[in-house]
Amino acid sequence: MKISHWAETKENRKELIKIKAIDSSFAFDSKDEKLFYIEMEGEILGYAVLKLNKKAELKRIFIKPRLRNNGYGTVLLKYLINWLTDNDFDSLLVTNHKKMNNFLEKQRFIKTDTGYELNNLAEIKKEKNRMMSVSRFAIAINIILSLLKIVSGNIFKSVSLISDGLNSFSDLITNILVIIGLKVGSSPEDKDHPFGHGKIESVFSVIIGTFIILTAFDIIKENIGKLFISKEKSIVSPIPVVITVIAIIIKTFQLIFMKRRTRGFKGALIVSLIQDYKMDIVISVSVLLGLLLSSVNPNFDLLVGLSVAVYIIYSGYNLIKENSLILLDSQDEALLEEVRKDIFSFNEIENAHDFRMTTSGKDVYIFVDVRMDKDITIEKAHEISDRISKFIKHKYKNIKRVLIHIEPVYDLK
Protein backbone atom coordinates (compact mmCIF):
# COMPACT_ATOMS: atom_id res chain seq x y z
CA MET A 1 0.00 0.00 0.00
CA LYS A 2 1.32 3.44 -0.91
CA ILE A 3 0.04 6.99 -1.15
CA SER A 4 1.01 9.08 -4.17
CA HIS A 5 0.83 12.79 -4.94
CA TRP A 6 -0.59 13.17 -8.44
CA ALA A 7 1.42 15.27 -10.89
CA GLU A 8 0.20 15.96 -14.41
CA THR A 9 2.02 13.90 -17.04
CA LYS A 10 0.85 11.88 -20.01
CA GLU A 11 1.45 8.65 -18.10
CA ASN A 12 -0.45 9.84 -15.02
CA ARG A 13 -3.66 10.85 -16.81
CA LYS A 14 -4.79 7.22 -16.64
CA GLU A 15 -4.86 7.58 -12.84
CA LEU A 16 -7.60 10.22 -13.19
CA ILE A 17 -9.62 7.79 -15.29
CA LYS A 18 -9.24 5.09 -12.60
CA ILE A 19 -10.34 7.51 -9.87
CA LYS A 20 -13.35 8.66 -11.90
CA ALA A 21 -14.31 5.00 -12.30
CA ILE A 22 -14.55 4.46 -8.53
CA ASP A 23 -16.28 7.81 -7.77
CA SER A 24 -18.67 9.40 -10.25
CA SER A 25 -18.58 12.63 -8.16
CA PHE A 26 -14.83 13.06 -8.60
CA ALA A 27 -13.84 16.63 -9.47
CA PHE A 28 -10.35 18.07 -9.57
CA ASP A 29 -8.80 21.36 -10.69
CA SER A 30 -5.04 20.94 -11.10
CA LYS A 31 -4.47 24.73 -11.02
CA ASP A 32 -5.11 25.29 -7.31
CA GLU A 33 -5.80 21.81 -5.95
CA LYS A 34 -3.62 18.83 -5.04
CA LEU A 35 -4.69 15.24 -5.57
CA PHE A 36 -3.49 12.31 -3.47
CA TYR A 37 -4.48 8.70 -4.01
CA ILE A 38 -3.95 5.49 -2.09
CA GLU A 39 -3.27 2.30 -4.03
CA MET A 40 -2.32 -1.32 -3.50
CA GLU A 41 -1.01 -3.68 -6.20
CA GLY A 42 -2.14 -1.29 -8.94
CA GLU A 43 -5.67 -0.89 -7.53
CA ILE A 44 -6.70 2.59 -6.42
CA LEU A 45 -8.44 2.29 -3.05
CA GLY A 46 -9.37 5.95 -2.56
CA TYR A 47 -8.26 9.54 -2.97
CA ALA A 48 -8.31 13.01 -1.41
CA VAL A 49 -8.36 16.51 -2.88
CA LEU A 50 -6.80 19.51 -1.12
CA LYS A 51 -7.40 23.12 -2.07
CA LEU A 52 -4.39 25.22 -1.13
CA ASN A 53 -4.76 28.93 -0.41
CA LYS A 54 -3.56 30.70 2.74
CA LYS A 55 -5.25 27.83 4.54
CA ALA A 56 -5.54 24.30 3.25
CA GLU A 57 -9.03 22.89 2.75
CA LEU A 58 -9.98 19.24 2.39
CA LYS A 59 -12.44 19.33 -0.53
CA ARG A 60 -13.10 15.59 -0.62
CA ILE A 61 -11.80 12.33 0.80
CA PHE A 62 -13.13 9.10 -0.66
CA ILE A 63 -12.53 5.39 -0.03
CA LYS A 64 -14.15 2.59 -2.03
CA PRO A 65 -17.38 1.59 -0.22
CA ARG A 66 -16.34 -2.07 0.19
CA LEU A 67 -13.07 -1.00 1.85
CA ARG A 68 -14.48 1.50 4.34
CA ASN A 69 -14.04 1.04 8.11
CA ASN A 70 -10.72 -0.70 7.51
CA GLY A 71 -8.46 2.24 8.39
CA TYR A 72 -7.61 3.37 4.85
CA GLY A 73 -9.31 6.75 5.32
CA THR A 74 -7.40 7.35 8.56
CA VAL A 75 -4.07 6.46 6.91
CA LEU A 76 -4.82 8.81 4.00
CA LEU A 77 -5.89 11.68 6.26
CA LYS A 78 -2.78 11.34 8.44
CA TYR A 79 -0.63 11.39 5.30
CA LEU A 80 -2.31 14.65 4.23
CA ILE A 81 -1.72 16.19 7.67
CA ASN A 82 1.97 15.27 7.55
CA TRP A 83 2.29 16.57 3.99
CA LEU A 84 0.74 19.90 4.99
CA THR A 85 2.99 20.09 8.06
CA ASP A 86 6.08 19.51 5.92
CA ASN A 87 4.92 22.20 3.48
CA ASP A 88 4.43 24.87 6.18
CA PHE A 89 0.63 24.94 6.37
CA ASP A 90 -0.69 25.69 9.84
CA SER A 91 -4.26 24.39 9.56
CA LEU A 92 -6.62 22.15 7.62
CA LEU A 93 -10.28 23.08 7.08
CA VAL A 94 -13.16 20.73 6.28
CA THR A 95 -16.44 22.40 5.30
CA ASN A 96 -18.00 19.51 3.39
CA HIS A 97 -18.12 17.05 6.27
CA LYS A 98 -21.33 15.11 5.72
CA LYS A 99 -21.16 11.82 7.69
CA MET A 100 -17.55 12.61 8.65
CA ASN A 101 -18.02 14.30 12.04
CA ASN A 102 -16.91 11.35 14.15
CA PHE A 103 -14.06 10.52 11.76
CA LEU A 104 -12.69 14.06 12.00
CA GLU A 105 -13.15 14.42 15.75
CA LYS A 106 -11.11 11.24 16.30
CA GLN A 107 -8.22 13.02 14.57
CA ARG A 108 -8.55 16.03 16.96
CA PHE A 109 -10.37 18.31 14.50
CA ILE A 110 -12.30 21.04 16.34
CA LYS A 111 -15.88 21.90 15.33
CA THR A 112 -16.32 25.52 14.18
CA ASP A 113 -19.20 27.60 12.81
CA THR A 114 -18.29 26.62 9.25
CA GLY A 115 -17.19 23.02 9.72
CA TYR A 116 -14.12 21.42 11.25
CA GLU A 117 -10.57 22.67 11.62
CA LEU A 118 -7.23 21.16 12.68
CA ASN A 119 -4.83 23.87 13.88
CA ASN A 120 -1.21 24.34 14.97
CA LEU A 121 0.31 22.13 12.28
CA ALA A 122 3.22 24.54 11.89
CA GLU A 123 4.00 24.19 15.61
CA ILE A 124 4.64 20.47 15.11
CA LYS A 125 7.24 21.23 12.43
CA LYS A 126 8.77 24.04 14.51
CA GLU A 127 9.08 21.65 17.44
CA LYS A 128 10.88 19.06 15.31
CA ASN A 129 13.15 21.74 13.79
CA ARG A 130 14.00 23.03 17.27
CA MET A 131 15.05 19.55 18.32
CA MET A 132 17.21 19.18 15.22
CA SER A 133 18.88 22.59 15.62
CA VAL A 134 19.59 21.95 19.32
CA SER A 135 21.15 18.56 18.51
CA ARG A 136 23.32 19.97 15.69
CA PHE A 137 24.49 22.79 17.95
CA ALA A 138 25.31 20.24 20.67
CA ILE A 139 27.36 18.17 18.18
CA ALA A 140 29.55 21.18 17.37
CA ILE A 141 29.99 22.00 21.09
CA ASN A 142 30.91 18.42 22.02
CA ILE A 143 33.47 18.11 19.19
CA ILE A 144 35.26 21.18 20.57
CA LEU A 145 34.98 20.12 24.23
CA SER A 146 36.06 16.51 23.69
CA LEU A 147 39.14 17.56 21.68
CA LEU A 148 40.12 20.22 24.23
CA LYS A 149 39.76 17.88 27.20
CA ILE A 150 41.38 14.77 25.68
CA VAL A 151 44.34 16.65 24.16
CA SER A 152 45.02 18.74 27.28
CA GLY A 153 44.41 15.68 29.50
CA ASN A 154 47.10 13.73 27.63
CA ILE A 155 49.51 16.68 27.63
CA PHE A 156 49.15 17.28 31.36
CA LYS A 157 48.68 13.60 32.31
CA SER A 158 45.27 14.22 33.91
CA VAL A 159 43.14 11.07 34.17
CA SER A 160 40.05 13.02 35.28
CA LEU A 161 40.27 15.43 32.33
CA ILE A 162 40.72 12.54 29.87
CA SER A 163 37.68 10.84 31.46
CA ASP A 164 35.67 14.03 31.05
CA GLY A 165 36.84 14.30 27.43
CA LEU A 166 35.71 10.76 26.68
CA ASN A 167 32.37 11.61 28.28
CA SER A 168 32.06 14.60 25.92
CA PHE A 169 32.91 12.30 23.01
CA SER A 170 30.13 9.92 24.11
CA ASP A 171 27.81 12.96 24.17
CA LEU A 172 28.78 13.61 20.56
CA ILE A 173 27.65 10.09 19.62
CA THR A 174 24.53 10.65 21.73
CA ASN A 175 23.58 13.79 19.77
CA ILE A 176 24.05 11.99 16.46
CA LEU A 177 21.74 9.21 17.70
CA VAL A 178 19.21 11.85 18.82
CA ILE A 179 19.03 13.27 15.29
CA ILE A 180 18.56 9.80 13.80
CA GLY A 181 15.98 8.92 16.45
CA LEU A 182 14.00 12.13 15.87
CA LYS A 183 13.95 11.59 12.11
CA VAL A 184 12.73 8.00 12.38
CA GLY A 185 10.52 8.51 15.45
CA SER A 186 8.58 11.38 13.88
CA SER A 187 7.45 9.24 10.93
CA PRO A 188 3.65 9.09 10.81
CA GLU A 189 1.50 6.12 11.71
CA ASP A 190 0.84 3.65 8.93
CA LYS A 191 -0.98 0.36 8.52
CA ASP A 192 2.10 -1.66 9.53
CA HIS A 193 2.85 0.65 12.50
CA PRO A 194 -0.53 1.70 13.98
CA PHE A 195 1.17 3.25 17.04
CA GLY A 196 3.65 5.21 14.94
CA HIS A 197 7.44 4.94 15.21
CA GLY A 198 7.89 6.73 18.54
CA LYS A 199 9.32 3.71 20.38
CA ILE A 200 12.47 4.13 18.31
CA GLU A 201 13.28 7.03 20.68
CA SER A 202 13.42 4.60 23.60
CA VAL A 203 15.45 2.12 21.54
CA PHE A 204 18.03 4.81 20.79
CA SER A 205 17.99 5.94 24.43
CA VAL A 206 18.89 2.38 25.47
CA ILE A 207 21.73 2.43 22.91
CA ILE A 208 22.90 5.77 24.31
CA GLY A 209 22.89 4.37 27.85
CA THR A 210 24.83 1.29 26.74
CA PHE A 211 27.40 3.43 24.96
CA ILE A 212 27.83 5.61 28.07
CA ILE A 213 28.44 2.53 30.25
CA LEU A 214 30.96 1.01 27.81
CA THR A 215 32.85 4.32 27.70
CA ALA A 216 33.00 4.43 31.51
CA PHE A 217 34.21 0.83 31.78
CA ASP A 218 36.96 1.61 29.28
CA ILE A 219 38.07 4.54 31.47
CA ILE A 220 38.17 2.30 34.55
CA LYS A 221 40.03 -0.51 32.75
CA GLU A 222 42.71 1.84 31.44
CA ASN A 223 43.30 3.66 34.73
CA ILE A 224 42.58 1.31 37.63
CA GLY A 225 46.14 0.05 37.62
CA LYS A 226 47.50 3.56 37.85
CA LEU A 227 45.95 3.91 41.28
CA PHE A 228 48.50 1.38 42.61
CA ILE A 229 51.33 1.65 40.07
CA SER A 230 51.48 5.18 38.74
CA LYS A 231 54.61 5.96 36.75
CA GLU A 232 53.24 9.13 35.22
CA LYS A 233 52.39 12.01 37.51
CA SER A 234 50.02 14.72 36.46
CA ILE A 235 51.67 18.01 35.48
CA VAL A 236 50.49 20.86 37.70
CA SER A 237 49.35 23.70 35.43
CA PRO A 238 46.53 26.25 35.43
CA ILE A 239 45.63 25.37 31.80
CA PRO A 240 43.56 22.20 32.58
CA VAL A 241 41.76 24.16 35.31
CA VAL A 242 40.92 26.98 32.88
CA ILE A 243 39.72 24.48 30.25
CA THR A 244 37.48 22.74 32.80
CA VAL A 245 35.99 26.06 34.00
CA ILE A 246 35.27 27.02 30.39
CA ALA A 247 33.64 23.60 29.84
CA ILE A 248 31.42 24.08 32.91
CA ILE A 249 30.30 27.52 31.70
CA ILE A 250 29.59 26.22 28.17
CA LYS A 251 27.66 23.20 29.46
CA THR A 252 25.61 25.37 31.84
CA PHE A 253 24.59 27.75 29.05
CA GLN A 254 23.94 24.75 26.79
CA LEU A 255 21.59 23.25 29.39
CA ILE A 256 19.71 26.56 29.78
CA PHE A 257 19.48 26.90 25.97
CA MET A 258 18.28 23.30 25.63
CA LYS A 259 15.57 23.70 28.29
CA ARG A 260 14.23 26.88 26.68
CA ARG A 261 14.21 25.47 23.16
CA THR A 262 12.55 22.20 24.18
CA ARG A 263 10.00 23.60 26.63
CA GLY A 264 6.78 21.56 26.37
CA PHE A 265 8.43 18.69 24.47
CA LYS A 266 8.34 15.38 26.38
CA GLY A 267 9.97 12.92 24.01
CA ALA A 268 12.17 10.24 25.58
CA LEU A 269 15.25 11.30 23.63
CA ILE A 270 15.07 14.95 24.72
CA VAL A 271 14.45 14.00 28.36
CA SER A 272 17.50 11.71 28.16
CA LEU A 273 19.59 14.46 26.60
CA ILE A 274 18.70 17.02 29.28
CA GLN A 275 19.56 14.49 31.98
CA ASP A 276 22.87 13.86 30.22
CA TYR A 277 23.66 17.61 30.22
CA LYS A 278 23.01 17.83 33.96
CA MET A 279 25.32 14.86 34.48
CA ASP A 280 28.02 16.56 32.38
CA ILE A 281 28.02 19.62 34.62
CA VAL A 282 28.33 17.47 37.76
CA ILE A 283 31.19 15.53 36.16
CA SER A 284 33.07 18.67 35.09
CA VAL A 285 32.70 20.21 38.56
CA SER A 286 34.12 16.99 40.04
CA VAL A 287 37.00 17.11 37.58
CA LEU A 288 37.70 20.72 38.53
CA LEU A 289 37.83 19.70 42.19
CA GLY A 290 40.21 16.83 41.37
CA LEU A 291 42.51 19.12 39.39
CA LEU A 292 42.66 21.64 42.24
CA LEU A 293 43.39 18.93 44.83
CA SER A 294 45.99 17.21 42.64
CA SER A 295 48.46 19.93 43.56
CA VAL A 296 48.24 18.57 47.12
CA ASN A 297 48.23 14.87 46.16
CA PRO A 298 48.39 13.62 42.51
CA ASN A 299 46.19 10.65 43.41
CA PHE A 300 43.21 12.97 43.82
CA ASP A 301 43.08 13.46 40.05
CA LEU A 302 43.08 9.68 39.48
CA LEU A 303 40.44 9.07 42.15
CA VAL A 304 38.15 11.74 40.70
CA GLY A 305 38.62 10.25 37.22
CA LEU A 306 37.56 6.83 38.43
CA SER A 307 34.67 8.32 40.48
CA VAL A 308 33.45 10.09 37.34
CA ALA A 309 33.51 6.77 35.48
CA VAL A 310 31.45 5.08 38.22
CA TYR A 311 28.90 7.92 38.13
CA ILE A 312 28.66 7.62 34.34
CA ILE A 313 27.91 3.90 34.71
CA TYR A 314 25.16 4.66 37.24
CA SER A 315 23.58 7.30 34.96
CA GLY A 316 23.79 5.01 31.93
CA TYR A 317 22.10 2.24 33.93
CA ASN A 318 19.22 4.55 34.89
CA LEU A 319 18.82 5.62 31.27
CA ILE A 320 18.64 2.01 30.10
CA LYS A 321 16.26 1.07 32.92
CA GLU A 322 13.79 3.91 32.28
CA ASN A 323 13.59 3.35 28.53
CA SER A 324 13.53 -0.44 28.82
CA LEU A 325 10.41 -0.03 30.96
CA ILE A 326 8.85 2.02 28.15
CA LEU A 327 9.73 -0.66 25.61
CA LEU A 328 8.23 -3.27 27.92
CA ASP A 329 5.05 -1.15 28.22
CA SER A 330 5.45 -0.35 31.90
CA GLN A 331 2.22 1.25 33.16
CA ASP A 332 1.92 4.81 34.45
CA GLU A 333 -0.43 4.05 37.36
CA ALA A 334 -0.97 7.74 38.22
CA LEU A 335 -2.12 8.56 34.67
CA LEU A 336 -4.33 5.48 34.46
CA GLU A 337 -5.95 6.40 37.79
CA GLU A 338 -6.77 9.89 36.47
CA VAL A 339 -8.26 8.36 33.30
CA ARG A 340 -10.25 5.91 35.43
CA LYS A 341 -11.80 8.79 37.41
CA ASP A 342 -12.67 10.59 34.17
CA ILE A 343 -14.41 7.53 32.74
CA PHE A 344 -16.44 7.00 35.91
CA SER A 345 -17.64 10.62 35.68
CA PHE A 346 -19.86 9.49 32.77
CA ASN A 347 -23.17 8.32 34.24
CA GLU A 348 -23.67 5.60 31.60
CA ILE A 349 -20.59 3.69 32.79
CA GLU A 350 -21.48 0.99 35.31
CA ASN A 351 -17.96 -0.34 35.64
CA ALA A 352 -14.51 0.06 34.07
CA HIS A 353 -11.56 -2.31 34.40
CA ASP A 354 -8.40 -3.67 32.78
CA PHE A 355 -6.83 -0.26 32.16
CA ARG A 356 -3.73 -0.61 30.01
CA MET A 357 -1.46 1.72 28.10
CA THR A 358 1.40 1.72 25.62
CA THR A 359 3.78 4.59 24.92
CA SER A 360 5.25 5.53 21.54
CA GLY A 361 7.56 8.53 21.80
CA LYS A 362 5.53 11.26 23.48
CA ASP A 363 2.21 9.66 22.47
CA VAL A 364 0.19 7.47 24.84
CA TYR A 365 -2.45 4.92 23.79
CA ILE A 366 -5.02 3.84 26.39
CA PHE A 367 -6.98 0.56 26.37
CA VAL A 368 -9.91 -0.04 28.73
CA ASP A 369 -12.92 -2.35 29.15
CA VAL A 370 -16.15 -0.64 30.23
CA ARG A 371 -19.54 -2.06 31.21
CA MET A 372 -22.84 -0.47 30.25
CA ASP A 373 -26.52 -1.40 30.59
CA LYS A 374 -27.23 -4.43 28.37
CA ASP A 375 -30.35 -2.75 26.97
CA ILE A 376 -28.41 0.17 25.45
CA THR A 377 -28.30 -0.12 21.66
CA ILE A 378 -25.02 -0.64 19.84
CA GLU A 379 -25.40 2.82 18.30
CA LYS A 380 -25.89 4.46 21.71
CA ALA A 381 -22.98 2.54 23.27
CA HIS A 382 -20.76 3.59 20.38
CA GLU A 383 -21.80 7.23 20.82
CA ILE A 384 -20.97 7.09 24.55
CA SER A 385 -17.54 5.52 23.96
CA ASP A 386 -16.79 8.21 21.37
CA ARG A 387 -17.71 10.97 23.84
CA ILE A 388 -15.43 9.43 26.46
CA SER A 389 -12.56 9.06 23.99
CA LYS A 390 -12.82 12.65 22.74
CA PHE A 391 -13.05 14.03 26.28
CA ILE A 392 -9.90 12.21 27.42
CA LYS A 393 -7.89 13.05 24.28
CA HIS A 394 -8.68 16.75 24.61
CA LYS A 395 -7.93 16.78 28.35
CA TYR A 396 -4.58 14.95 28.07
CA LYS A 397 -2.68 16.23 25.03
CA ASN A 398 -0.19 13.35 25.12
CA ILE A 399 -2.95 10.71 24.87
CA LYS A 400 -3.22 9.97 21.17
CA ARG A 401 -5.98 7.38 21.23
CA VAL A 402 -8.40 5.71 23.66
CA LEU A 403 -9.58 2.23 22.66
CA ILE A 404 -12.70 1.20 24.58
CA HIS A 405 -14.07 -2.33 24.67
CA ILE A 406 -17.75 -2.36 25.65
CA GLU A 407 -19.25 -5.14 27.80
CA PRO A 408 -22.87 -5.53 28.94
CA VAL A 409 -24.03 -5.43 32.58
CA TYR A 410 -26.65 -8.06 33.32
CA ASP A 411 -29.14 -7.95 36.18
CA LEU A 412 -28.16 -10.33 38.97
CA LYS A 413 -31.10 -12.47 40.06
Q: Residue ranges: pLDDT <50 for 5 or more in a row?
A: none
The fraction of residues assigned to DSSP E strands is: 15-25%
**Estimated radius of gyration:** 28 Å
Number of helices: 11
Strands of the biggest beta sheet: in what spatial order? 1-2-3-4-5-7-6
Whole-Å distance between the termini? 52 Å
Shape assignment: elongated
Query: Which structural category do the helix and sheet elements fall into?
Result: alpha+beta
Average pLDDT? 80
Number of strands: 10
Topology as a string of helices (H) and strands (E): EHEEEHEHEEHHHHHHHEEHE
Query: What level of helicity do the residues show?
Result: 40-55%
Largest sheet properties: 7 strands, mixed
Give me a quick take on this structure.
By secondary structure, this protein is of the alpha+beta class.
Please, could you describe this protein's structure?
The longest helix is centred in the middle third of the chain and has 35 residues, at 121-155. The two termini are 52 Å apart. The mean pLDDT is 80. It is elongated and about 85 Å long. The strands form 2 sheets. Strands 1-2-3-4-5-7-6 form a 7-stranded mixed beta sheet, with helices on both faces. Strands 8-9-10 form a 3-stranded mixed beta sheet. The protein contains 11 helices and 10 strands. It has helices at residues 13-22, 72-86, 101-106, 121-155, 159-185, 199-223, 238-261, 268-293, 299-327, 333-344, 378-395; strands at residues 2-5, 33-40, 43-52, 56-63, 92-94, 110-111, 116-118, 351-360, 363-373, 399-409. With 413 residues, the chain is α+β, with helices and mostly antiparallel strands.
